[in-house]
Amino acid sequence: MNELRKYDIHIIGLEEKRYEYDFESGDAFWEALDQELITKGTVHTHLTLDKSSTMIRLYFHIRGTVEQTCDRSLDLYDEPIDVRHLLLLKFSDHNEELTDEIELIERNTATVNVARYIFEFIGISLPMKKLHPRFRDEDEHDDDPESDVKLIYRSDTDEPEDDDQSPVDPRWEALRKLNNN
């Protein structure tokens, strides 16, 4: 049996009401998707499907961890995942992706496979800069404006303390005189 078949939802016979589904995704899920972003991990997806006569609303809540490679040390680590996303599938006469949140599907569509959506929502939730948790404290400290920062350039009107000044370009001297007036 294809690993992705268990993510099929048969929508053709569903009444217009709310349904709930739960999916457990492990290593076999990532292998079946034939991609290189995520190779290992375990996630739990709670899906609420709300069917009406014109559309289907899919509310995804995805939690778990996926294995990532640190960009700095190349060590493997588990990245926590907690994603909530809404997807609208509107009935139409053709299939088309309008936006990231809205897709058109044909009225006679019998099943919707949500595996691709789960993967996409996890993929966009991953940080661009993949850092092992032991480096995140250092990175946050580097972004802290209160940390010890060495001043390299200072632009103010005070004269430098050095008496060994190099000769000033006369154009700058003329501009400085205009500024002082």
General description of the model:
InterPro entries: YceD. This is DUF177 domain-containing protein. Pfam families: YceD. Residues 147-157, 170-181 have a biased composition (Basic and acidic residues). The protein has 181 residues and is α+β, with helices and mostly antiparallel strands. The chain has a domain at 3-127. The protein has four helices and eight strands, in the order E-E-H-E-E-E-E-E-E-H-H-H. It has helices at 27-32, 115-125, 133-143, 170-180, and strands at residues 8-10, 18-25, 41-51, 55-69, 76-92, 96-97, 102-106, 111-113. Strands 2-3-4-5-7-6 form a six-stranded mixed β-sheet. The termini are far apart. The model has no long low-confidence stretch (mean pLDDT 84).
Give short descriptive properties of this protein.
single chain; 181 residues; alpha+beta; six-stranded mixed sheet; two-stranded antiparallel sheet; 8 strands; 22% helix; elongated
Structural class: alpha+beta
Number of strands: 8
Shape: elongated
Radius of gyration: 28 Å
Number of helices: 4
Summarize the biggest pleated sheet: 6 strands, mixed
CA-CA gap between termini = 84 Å
The proportion of residues forming helix, as a percent range, comes to: 10-25%
Strand-residue proportion: 35-45%
Q: Give the low-confidence spans.
A: none
Series of secondary-structure elements, N-terminal to C-terminal: EEHEEEEEEHHH
Query: What's the average pLDDT?
Result: 84
Largest sheet strand order: 2-3-4-5-7-6
